[in-house]
Amino acid sequence: MSTIYDVARKAGVSPKTVSRVLNSDGPVGEKTRATVEAAMRELGYVPSNAARMMRAQKSGIIGLITGAISTKNQPTTQQGLPDLFIVQGIQRALESSGMTVMIADTAGRKDRVPHLIDTFLSHRVEGLIYVAEYHQEVNLPRLPEDTPLVLANCFDAYGTPSVVPDDRRLQADLVRRLIAAGHRRIAYLSLRPDMAAGRLRSLGYRDALAEAGLSFDAALLEHVDFDQPETGPQLLWDTIDRMLRLEQPPTVLCCGNDQMAMMVYGILRSMGRKMPDEIGVAGFDNYRAIAETLYPPLSTVELPYNAIGVRAGERLMRLISGEDRDDRSPVLVAGPVHWRGSVNELRQENVVTFRTLREE
Amino acid sequence: MSTIYDVARKAGVSPKTVSRVLNSDGPVGEKTRATVEAAMRELGYVPSNAARMMRAQKSGIIGLITGAISTKNQPTTQQGLPDLFIVQGIQRALESSGMTVMIADTAGRKDRVPHLIDTFLSHRVEGLIYVAEYHQEVNLPRLPEDTPLVLANCFDAYGTPSVVPDDRRLQADLVRRLIAAGHRRIAYLSLRPDMAAGRLRSLGYRDALAEAGLSFDAALLEHVDFDQPETGPQLLWDTIDRMLRLEQPPTVLCCGNDQMAMMVYGILRSMGRKMPDEIGVAGFDNYRAIAETLYPPLSTVELPYNAIGVRAGERLMRLISGEDRDDRSPVLVAGPVHWRGSVNELRQENVVTFRTLREE
DNA sequence: GCTAGCTATGACACCGATGTCATGACACCG
DNA sequence: CGGTGTCATGACATCGGTGTCATAGCTAGC
Predict the structure, then answer these.
(1) In sequence order, what are the residues at sequence separation of 6 or more whose Cβ sits closer than 8 angstroms to the Cβ of residue B19?
(2) CB contact under 8 A, A266 and B54
(3) Residue A248: what are its φ and ψ, rounded to 5°?
(4) Contacts of A80 in chain B (CB under 8 A)
(5) pLDDT tens digit string along B179-219?
(6) What pTM did the predictor assign?
């Protein structure tokens, strides 16, 4: 690969003049500039980042650590692909800044993180973002003081700047919408409570009930570890079966996420229950490949992973430029409810009407 | 960030000695080594890649261009997330080589590719892989002679080394399996024929029929542009409706991919058709989040995107080390059929038996 | 006509590693 | 005891850019 010296020789000028042309730095004669540019084109010259970086003491590189790339062939993931959307958002937020985003993948092994951090430090990244695959607490090795770090979709015990989904509010918003549609018996099939998302969403569910003056019925809340390959579907089936046999059965099943909702569709149909007229289903995530493809399309609440990424990227840029250095409060991100065909509007008349299932 | 000079000063030795400790280069006295290592630890020293790279004239970086990260929030993707799995495979193939993989995202805009290539060249990547989001022909700008390029999931007209799925053989394998299970009336709901995958898979379908001595029936083949948000589902419904009214209706519907199969599940159930006893469904891709979660689980053929990535990575490494420089033949990758509950084994008796739908 | 000021350009040092070569201290051998 | 080889170490140049400073040529102003 040719260098600035090759270009200089070809154009009959000094390397420094070539540098000036490259960076529109000092003044350069019109004719000289043309000669130099021609030489650069002819040689296919591309400046070396390494050399620039060394001189400038700035890399223009942001490091991104994630499992987004590697973990997606696990049996079935609890989540959709949140981390991927987050990475996407980060890229979007950073592309205008001229930073190059370097992505390192944990390959599903947390113990590789320190090594990845070292690699990034050797590249002299100007900042780091750690993206977790689901909302959780993490504990990363300490970084040098002058390298800012932002946690996305996770948080730690040291008050490292973080951006996380507002699970509690999102779930409450969805349940509020169900209540507004006239539903009073709302079942909640929750994710495992040892997950931050599961815990917070259950709280949101209760918030919305309380707010509307509906009493909480423990028979309508169940934590279902649905994505265990063997026991999961059976567990879900039994839970739904139990709830539907209640004296006052639910009119809608709120699912921990869209993937669980997809499974619930299959189960309800096997049971011969028609959606949405006999029973409604709601999801969580707005995982569009599922929510829009299912029939009827799934009502769900959008957890805007993209926005988490964007906010994380913006936050990091502010840290790099020296702002907000001591702002320790986490950024909470919420999103809209998507109301589709999987839940009926009951309004005041709390009557189940049977219609032909498919109508245009 | 501290440098080799800081370490040298602290340890009371020359920079070169520190360098020797770092790289276990020349001989270093036991005591000196200990002193230097202590100094490095104390300063939190991490060597600068830029400086190394400049001296070594080798970056140890592989560039990856893809839309995997950014394009996944498009309405609903025709494909699953093949490119992501490919990226994953590439990472796996390259991690043992000690190369750092740098991922650049097109952000869905093909016109950004030249710019991304320049960025990579400025980082002096030792090789490039371009990953397409679906099997297609591409036309990339020319690279300098000394930077090898591998195309993954795509090919071009210049014989650039490429690794692509063997769609034709995969589809044939699946249909062969259906035939072995006793099916004779096999419908094929194909992807758009202007896509390489659609064309090749249709050919594979016909290959398998011909091989088994079954005549091709045009009434059982339809190209369905199923992922148009408005017309898609209707089109699919109409096509299935038409096929099921045939004098000799199909006993199994072969779908262009798993996502289409998911939609077909919903339609068949709305029509009141029971799977797999009244009608079987087969997919393509083995997109596990769908294939394993659907009920009944989907029989499909695995398009091992992961393997495409691995092969592409390996191919690039060989090119970098100077092997196979003039091997122009594309690498074809196939995968296994996954036989799950969505298609019945009819065997010799071509009888539809009705059983209770859910059995453990 | 001399100087101040501007334009266009180049010489040189430096960023942080490492390859090359030199050197000093020993050990070993004849 | 002198010569040779090995070990441990350092001085110095170099990779490809860019910041600093110097300088030559020209113009404008007094």
Answers:
(1) B4, B25
(2) no
(3) -115, 90
(4) 289
(5) 988 889 999 999 888 888 889 999 999 999 999 888 898 88
(6) 0.83
